[in-house]
Specification:
mainly alpha; 7 helices
Length: 145
Amino acid sequence: MNTSKNLTKEPPRSPRSRLAGYALMARMIDKGRASIEGNAGEYHYACPLDQMLFEFKGVEAGEVKNLLGSGATDDEVAAWFNSHGTPKTSEEIEGWSTGVEGIHPYDNPEKKEWFAGECAKVNLKPEDSTLVDYLEADDVASFKS
């Protein structure tokens, strides 16, 4: 069964959609599968956001892509993450995921101008928005018919 999303027709899951407690994982899986299938559209597997997840767990993007290419289900990917790389407690996973969901690029002088410009495109106030808020709004804006 192919569970790959065609990201030229619909967005990946929200960065807030958690698998095994991990923020970003469901989205990364959608982008990885779409990349393998050749229908990732404007989305990029192993982008800086995906890399945050890989670095947190101490796994490599290529390893994960091979796993996705094998046809692994979401649950199998989550189980693989839990058994590979750097061991993490559920509390560490929860804390990391909550931290990721709270990233405010506007507060970072190196990202402030970029983030303000991106937020303007999707009618968000950058000073009140997280990176996840922006990604969700951008997904909606990208697939309005």
